[in-house]
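**User:**
If convenient, please work through this fold.
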Amino acid sequence: MFGMENVMAQTLLGTLVVDMGIQWFGWALAALLKTEKFYDLFGSLTFIALSLQSLLSNESFASRQVILTSMVICWAVRLGSYLVARITRDGSDKRFEEAKSKPATFFVYWSLQGVWVWLTALPLFLLNGISNHPALTAVDFIGMAVWAVGLFFETVADGQKWVFKSDPKNDGRFIQTGLWKYSRHPNYFGEILVWWGVFITSVTSLTGWQIAVAAASPIFVMTLLLYVSGVPLLEASADKRWGNDLEYQEYKSKSRVLLPIPRGSI
């Protein structure tokens, strides 16, 4: 038992060390060049690197481990590709307009990205720190289905916004078509489902405190997006930009903050 605990502790600590090492290397390079253009790239690559590190460090390669590792990597490749394409198209990220010229402030942003990566991927690290796993159950397939639905919504929402933003006729306008007709943040809805799906898929192999720690991941993602850096900031920005626009006021009254379904349907 204590041997298993040691393996898990080594996996958790090892991924954290590599995680922060990647972020701080990225910060040093970005601060030197005064650019934010590979911030999101490093975030996505860190998810991929840590997923593989945690899987390979134990060498048990149970079906659940391989499946969940693949799920996280698939999500990271998809989101990373989108974010890199977006920064390449837009040329800059307003989140870092001032920070990229202030190394100490920029260091905080990069360090926080490391914390985000590690906390978000906790279910995978915990799972890959275990050597003995029961066979796949219905719970695993429920988790995979939730993850797949989340990835679908996130991918479609990002794709719809990409097409909208790429059309010069929409410059200065807000999107209210596709999933965005019903939800002002359908991509966040998908993101939240993705990590609940990852958590659900991991629980059959976990016990006791491990499940409680793994649950920190989807709870953290939900809290971050709904109450900290996601919805609140974007809602405030939209209100500042279009708050006096009658069309936006009507759109806001008819759409939901998160769920991409018509108002009054549930």
Notes: The chain has a mean pLDDT of 94.
